[in-house]
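Board notes (copied after class):
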Amino acid sequence: MSRSSARRDRGQTEPLAALVAVATIGLAVGLYGGYLTGVLGETTDRTPESVAIDRVWDDVSENGVFTAIDGNDGAIRNRVRIDSLPEGKTVHVAITTVDDGEKRVIDHARFHADGTVRDPARVGDPPADTGVATRPVPVELEPGDVRGGTLRVEVWSQ
């Protein structure tokens, strides 16, 4: 057997069959990626209030502590950025501590759906279907006096 006849007997794929195989694999990978994007994009368990509480804490904390020292009135109202709040929702933010066994509101503010700040006492109570998120936070009441507190964010449609 000559060398040239051995080359002719080797298995080869037709160019058209190779192109069809590559196109099929590319199409399959594309469809699978599209399917995963659709499935994973819809399975989030983050609620507007859970997203808002993280963003609000980033706005109102300084070095991981909420400072409530005298002269710092309206810290929440002045520090929370509008883009930190869920769009088209009313949001109430409050920071509380426990002092001598009693709950004490350190600061709070209510943001209307359009981003304007409202007086919580004048607006009334939120509806029953309000989404609520809370998290423990450190609160500095006086220089060097840091206590445990709670950040509470309530979100509802107006």
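Comment from the instructor: The two ends are 88 Å apart (CA to CA). The chain has five helices and six strands.
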